[in-house]
Amino acid sequence: MICLLLSLFAHIYQPGWTGANERTFLAVKPDGVQRKLVGEIVRRFEKRGFKLVGLKLVKASEDVLREHYWDLRNKPFFSRLISYMSSGPVVAMVWQGLDVVKTARKMLGETNPADSLPGTIRGDFCVEVGKNVIHGSDSMESAMKEISLWFGQNELHRWESCSTSWIY
Questions:
Q1: 122 is in an annotated binding site
Q2: CATH number of the domain that 65 lies in?
Q3: Is 158 annotated as a binding residue?
């Protein structure tokens, strides 16, 4: 009965961007997909209690990647980054939960894997900056921009998990 009520509430209530409805964008990069780390990464976010509201395997176009990494366009590594990110499939995801942007960044570890603690994704699975397995939004603003770049509104799902009351 409670699950039915929560499910009904999820369809009526339009999630915002605060509290337990905060969303972030994550992308398992081509090296993470090739190394078969997608399941482990999804598992970590599910076990943390976050809710997956969007997921797809894509071959990112150079146009999307140039827009995504626009802030880095003047860096000397920009063209190598675009080439690397378009070299294979990417798993794009949207996760939802309380403080998910900040928490996801901590779970990812530092951009440079050498600075990442064991227990973080990059600390456990990465060696060099150029192949650091995963991207995560660094702020609410970038999360909103990245989600709208990678996902259409019809690709994001509103649903309520029966475990919500055990997490919040």
A1: yes
A2: 3.30.70.141
A3: no
User: Residue 44 belongs to what domain range?
Assistant: 15-99+138-152
Enclosing H/E stretch for 23: strand 23-28
23 marked among binding-site residues: no
- Does residue 55 lie in a domain region? yes
Residue 38 lies in a domain: yes
Query: Tokens at residue 130, please?
Result: 């150029």
- In a domain, residue 113? The reply is no
pLDDT per residue as tens, the chain (168 positions): 444 334 434 433 344 566 889 999 999 999 999 999 999 999 999 999 999 999 999 999 999 999 999 999 999 999 999 999 999 999 999 999 999 999 999 999 999 999 999 999 999 999 999 999 999 999 999 999 999 999 999 999 999 889 889 998
- CA 41/CA 38 separation, integer angstroms: 5
- The C-alpha atoms of residue 121 and residue 25 are separated, in whole angstroms, by 15
> Closest by alpha carbon to 19, among 103, 94, 97?
97
Residue 157 designated active-site:
no
pTM of the full predicted structure?
0.87
Give the active site residue among 11, 68, 135, 157.
135
